[in-house]
């Protein structure tokens, strides 16, 4: 196993570095992962977000060593693990992996599942045999499963099984934890609770992590850094707040923010839209036509018989309502308002944008 000392990791704040990583499967016309490069700082959690088929799981498998790239390099804690003349298999990369389906051994108890990787370390002389149980118990306690050592996976709930999978990944104290859609098989309430708990656990041990998700809210809520992927490439990389507030492309804006996009026509120094006029941003002054991005929470609604928008549907979400609105042209808009404002289905309303200069993107084809 490529084991990096804590002193070496402390001296190098970059825990993971990818440079030009590319993978194309046989029979595919385009790469599944195409020239991906980024760095991840020690102790950070990186979310790989994107639609199905964008390459995020393949990228995770390349980092883990389950797939070989056609080109590019991977460095872990300053050590090359994949490159032109270097290839280390998964068991020597010092990474822990948490799979979507947990991948627990059904015939082994909780303690034996968690001990599995530790026994591998012991066989390689990296851990003394008497330490195996102590380290396994430490990991089990860390994920809140003390007292369940002797249970088998089928005797546990889905959330408990996922905790066992996390404990098994954490127990050998790897440099990097990789999580492949770890919450997708769980009930909504369990998923909401466990995702924050997993973040807290990883932070408490100073672990660095990369996790795959297609859930925008999940990615925004638990990531330190976010990589939005499309067609094998990273469309935008940065803090979740920056990506949400300042998306660099129409795709990122639509996928991450789930915003409305409203046709805009240039008229001298303003954009003319069905929601009114907006000043033109100089950075996009060359555009004659565009799409104005208005997030759902940025569109306020007021009853108005001459408003031009009709409430088509209303969803009560507890702390807020989500409205579906029909425009005079038959297009759909969406708005989120506080729960104290209740509009009736079929009611005509006026929509107002609460920001002065919404972003404008080139009109999609």
Describe this structure in words.
The protein is α+β, with helices and mostly antiparallel strands. Helices cover 25% and strands 32% of the residues. It is built from nine helices and 20 strands. It has helices at residues 6-11, 56-64, 110-123, 131-142, 158-170, 188-204, 216-222, 240-245, 250-257; strands at residues 14-23, 33-41, 45-49, 71-76, 79-82, 95-98, 176-180, 208-213, 225-230, 233-238, 260-267, 270-273, 276-279, 289-294, 299-303, 309-316, 320-326, 332-338, 348-353, 360-361. The strands form four sheets. Strands 6-7-8-3-9-10 form a six-stranded mixed β-sheet, sandwiched between helices. The protein has a five-stranded antiparallel β-sheet with strand order 13-12-11-14-20, covered by helices on one side. Helix 4 packs across helix 5. The longest helix has 17 residues, at 188-204.
Topology:
Blueprint: H1 6-11, E1 14-23, E2 33-41, E3 45-49, H2 56-64, E4 71-76, E5 79-82, E6 95-98, H3 110-123, H4 131-142, H5 158-170, E7 176-180, H6 188-204, E8 208-213, H7 216-222, E9 225-230, E10 233-238, H8 240-245, H9 250-257, E11 260-267, E12 270-273, E13 276-279, E14 289-294, E15 299-303, E16 309-316, E17 320-326, E18 332-338, E19 348-353, E20 360-361
Parallel strand pairs: 3-8, 3-9, 6-7, 7-8
Antiparallel strand pairs: 1-2, 1-4, 4-5, 9-10, 11-12, 11-14, 12-13, 14-20, 15-19, 16-17, 16-19, 17-18
């Amino acid at each position: 196993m490529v084991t990096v000392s804590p002193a070496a990791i402390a001296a190098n704040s970059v825990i993971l570095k990818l440079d030009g990583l590319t993978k194309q499967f046989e029979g595919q016309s385009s790469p599944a992962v195409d020239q991906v490069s980024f760095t991840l700082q020690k102790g950070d959690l990186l979310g790989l977000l994107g639609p199905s088929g964008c390459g995020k799981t393949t990228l995770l498998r390349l980092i883990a060593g389950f797939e070989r790239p056609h080109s590019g390099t991977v460095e872990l804690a300053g050590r090359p693990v994949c490159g032109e003349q270097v290839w280390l298999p998964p068991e020597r990369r010092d990474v822990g992996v948490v799979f979507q389906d947990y991948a627990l051994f059904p015939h082994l108890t909780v303690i034996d599942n968690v001990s599995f990787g530790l026994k591998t370390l012991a066989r390689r002389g990296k851990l003394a045999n008497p330490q195996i149980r102590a380290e396994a118990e430490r990991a089990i306690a860390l994920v809140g499963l003390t007292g369940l050592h002797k249970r088998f996976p089928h005797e546990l709930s889905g959330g408990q099984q996922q905790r066992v999978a996390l404990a098994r990944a954490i127990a050998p104290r790897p440099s990097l934890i990789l999580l492949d859609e770890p919450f997708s098989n769980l009930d909504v309430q369990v998923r909401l609770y466990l995702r924050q708990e997993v973040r807290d656990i990883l932070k408490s041990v100073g672990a660095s992590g990369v996790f795959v998700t297609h859930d925008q809210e999940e990615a925004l809520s638990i990531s330190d850094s976010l990589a939005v992927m499309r067609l094998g490439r990273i469309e935008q990389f940065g803090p979740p707040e920056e990506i949400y507030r300042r998306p660099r492309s129409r795709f990122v804006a639509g996928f991450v923010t789930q915003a409305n996009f409203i046709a805009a026509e240039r008229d001298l120094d303003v954009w003319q839209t069905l929601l009114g006029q907006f000043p033109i941003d100089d950075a996009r002054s060359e555009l004659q036509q565009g799409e104005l991005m208005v997030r759902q929470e940025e569109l306020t609604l007021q009853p108005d018989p001459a408003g031009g928008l009709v409430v088509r549907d209303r969803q009560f979400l507890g702390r807020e309502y989500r409205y579906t609105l029909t425009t005079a042209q038959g297009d759909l808009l969406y708005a989120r308002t506080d729960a104290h404002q209740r509009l009736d289905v079929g009611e005509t309303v006026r929509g107002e944008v609460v920001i002065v200069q919404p972003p404008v993107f080139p009109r999609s084809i």
